Amino acid sequence: MPFRPSLALVTGASSGLGELIARRFAQRGADLVLVARREDRLRALADELAAPGRQVHVLARDIAVPGAGPALAAAVGELVGDRLVDTVVNNAGFGLYGPLLAQHPGRLEQMLSLNVTALTSITRTFLEPMVAAGRGTLVNVASTGGFQPAPGLAAYVASKAYVLHLTEALWQETRRSGVRVTALCPGPTETAFFDAAGSEHGPLGGNVTTPEQVVGALLRTLDGRTVPPYLVPDLPNRVQSVAARLLPRRLTLEVAARVMKQR
């Protein structure tokens, strides 16, 4: 049976995977709450997705702040009342490319606040009512980088390892609750990620996929009755992610350093 969210919250919805996920959810009849910093892009997307009988709400805000989850829930409540947000996609995040010691300390803390702290706060806040209702879907966007360290993206992939491990544990904790939880782990994808990360090399390492391939794989998985703890959308990156967990760590570090042009 096709997955049909009733009310979906998507962070990082102004571009890339978040925007495409919002579009696909809208095509399936979902009401939406779109969250990102760029209000102009969110409103343009909301205007495009608006249709009779469909509500598309915009929350333009920086969620890389303390108490992101409760603050976001309060703002959503002002828009939709006591409706259950039955689908949450934690997509907001960014990376920093280059040696850790070359990263600006403030920018590094901002990345970790968004990728780790805000995601955890939002997950905790919105997962609780889903479990109480006995239904819902949580998708945390991680990365194939979360399966192994990557010199040149050290803090970023560490943050995605956190997201992956958190989500896998939540999958187990909630598996009898009626709520479905999964970590979406795309490899290098044709988005603006590497421009934002500051890499002049473009997508580094792994099989490069399109947003359409990633979101298509996610929706096919969500169409099933059960979801796995994590999803790597394409076969080549799936093989690489398994190998990263099985091969000796020193070997994978050496390979990663060469791929990331840190040797």
Shape: globular
Largest sheet: 7 strands, parallel
Count of distinct structural domains: 1
> What is the CATH domain class?
Alpha Beta
User: What is the first-to-last residue Cα distance?
Assistant: 49 Å
Provide structural commentary.
The protein is built from nine helices and seven strands; from the N terminus they run βαβαβαβαβαβααβαα. With 263 residues, the protein is α/β, with parallel strands linked by helices. It has one domain (7-259): Rossmann fold (3-Layer(aba) Sandwich), CATH 3.40.50. A seven-stranded parallel sheet has the order 3-2-1-4-5-6-7, with helices on both faces. Helix 1 packs across helix 7 (211-222) and helix 4 packs parallel to helix 5. One of its GO terms (cellular component) is membrane. It comes from Desertihabitans brevis. GO terms for molecular function: oxidoreductase activity.
